[in-house]
Amino acid sequence: VLAAYEEAVKCGYSGARAGRLHTPHGVFDTPMFMPVGTQATVKAVSPRELKEMGAQIILSNTYHLYLRPGTELVAEAGGLHRFMDWDGGILTDSGGFQVFSLGPLRKITEEGAAFRSHIDGSTQFLSPEIAIKAQMNLGADIIMAFDECIPYPAEYQYAKLSTERTTRWAERSQKAHTRSGQALFAIVQGGMYQDLRRVSANDLVSLDFPGYGIGGLSVGEPKPVMYEMLEQTVPLLPENKPRYLMGVGTPDCLVEAVRYGIDMFDCVFPTRVARNGTAMTKSGRLVVKNAAYAKDFLPIDENCGCYACQNFSRAYIRHLLKADEIFGLRLTTIHNLYFLLDFTKKMRQAILEDRFLSFREEFLAQYCK
Ligand SMILES: CNc1nc2cc3c(cc2[nH]1)N=C(N)NC3
Ligand SMILES: [Zn+2]
Hints:
41% of the residues lie in helices and 19% in strands. The protein has helices at 47-52, 62-67, 71-76, 80-83, 96-101, 128-138, 156-176, 194-206, 223-233, 251-260, 269-274, 307-311, 314-322, 326-352, 356-366, and strands at 4-10, 17-23, 26-30, 32-34, 57-61, 89-93, 105-108, 113-116, 123-126, 142-144, 183-188, 212-214, 243-245, 264-266, 278-281, 284-287. Strands 4-14-13-12-11-10-6-5 form an eight-stranded parallel sheet. The chain has a three-stranded antiparallel sheet with strand order 1-2-3. Helix 10 packs parallel to helix 14 (326-352), helix 10 (251-260) runs antiparallel to helix 15 and helix 13 (314-322) crosses helix 14. The radius of gyration is 20 Å and the shape is globular. Mean pLDDT is 94; it is low at 1-9. It binds ligand K7H and zinc ion. Zinc ion binds at residues 300-301, 304, 306, 308-309, 335, 338. The site of ligand K7H has 14 residues, from helix 5.
């Protein structure tokens, strides 16, 4: 069965739920955080380390792999799982976001999006059909419909026309998707307009997908606006199907989104800030590179079970970062990924024990943004 959803343990007092996601590569627990491995690697960590820290599903990007090394090449290599030696779950994003955020955009038409490659400036074109074929070649367990990610802010009229096109593109994505054993999720758009979000959700639900991404959020809008869009959208999505909030995020956003009923998350934040020496903790960010930690022989977090915190001090990691030693980036990355993976595990446990709201209160009280 594809990304079927079962055991959605629904807690009466909030939309939070703990579920299990069935894929050809295993059954995975939600809420879940998916480490981002844009170019078929989660930067600075190995598949063995990912497995060890409890990663279940990781994300890769069709846009990048289509441009380099090419999705046919990955198919010839036996598919993305074989190519990167990852036997857990893989979700590929369709390129809808990256085309608009990475390549200098040439032109969007009903047919698709023409753009210039951010790698060599060559003229490229992605359409629902091309994006779906590319994802079938990659062979991920979950793939995403090709959508247009509306920039923020956007005029109502533009958001309306773009959202309607994204729905037509979702239908074309569905028709182009012929690979069994692979789940195609649609992506709800609608900008920051409540009515457009509701129309987008209702239209996509009537096309009947096995799961739904919520896109076009965490694109610079104030957090209350993001939560308002969630409040409008999530209740319209089927309870027995996964909801995936794309590109989110920081622990405070995760705990709020879980309260609204989100099950899946991905974000480059933990791996990206790790590479400039920032560690995530339950009290907020800790910039290990700061001189304050030069002689701090405690771990980043004494209660953390990760490889970095079990074996190394802040002083050592700071030394490596100051000396531009690659191992320093590896340790901060391992810690940040472990922190978020463990955080979602703690949220799941709280939901199952019917104490999610108090877990959320306690966490938010301690965490400074
Ligand atoms: C960082 N914020 C973010 N918002 C997103 C929104 C989308 C996405 C990826 C995102 N990342 N991928 C899509 N295919 N569409 C919507
Ligand atoms: Zn740690």
